[in-house]
Design a protein that fits this description.
single chain, eight-stranded mixed sheet, 8 strands
Length: 171
């Protein structure tokens, strides 16, 4: 390093100048926000007055035929030691003229809880999920997953991977 600094004293200011010019013209510092507008989202209906639209953009996966996505709607709320959940009905709907699917959660009831006595009567913030049918979907990274939920709910999701087939022996 000493050898380089002695023979090239102009190198350090040059690198500093290039760095400043690069960062000042970088889109990170731009005044206008960069939008990644998905043209397919304009095709989906606007949410009803008491609903919110949630959009999941899945990353490209290896062997997507072996992947599933599980939708986990729910709410973070105060809860005691008893297990709690909501119930609801997921409806798969098709966007007319496009063939895209979207999902709507309706008939939300709850929270439902057991009534066991808690030893400390302590309330903590917990994610209380909505148990519903149809929450396990085929993985498709080419289209966004659009879900309409009643206001006040959040949408969590996770990916499931299929294991290799097993054969059951006959007995």
């Amino acid at each position: 390093m000493l050898h380089s600094a002695l023979f090239h004293p102009w190198l350090k200011p040059l690198v500093l100048t290039i760095s400043v010019v690069f960062l000042s013209t970088s889109p990170v510092w731009a005044e206008e926000p960069v939008t990644n507008a998905d043209p397919t989202l304009g095709s989906f209906p606007a949410p009803a007055a008491d609903y919110e639209r949630h959009v999941i953009r899945l990353p490209v996966g290896n062997y997507e035929n072996n992947l599933k996505i599980e939708l986990l709607p729910g709410k973070v709320q105060e809860a005691d030691c008893n297990p709690q959940h909501y119930t609801g009905l997921f409806q798969e709907k098709t966007l007319e003229g496009w063939g895209y699917n979207y999902y709507e959660l309706s008939e939300l009831d709850g929270p439902i809880s057991t009534k066991m006595a808690c030893p400390d009567e302590q309330q903590t913030l917990q994610f209380v999920p909505v148990h519903s049918n149809g929450s396990l979907l085929q993985y498709n990274s080419r289209l966004p997953v659009v879900v309409y939920l009643p206001k006040g709910l959040e949408l969590r999701w996770r990916t499931w991977v299929a294991t290799p087939y097993n054969t059951a022996p006959t007995e």
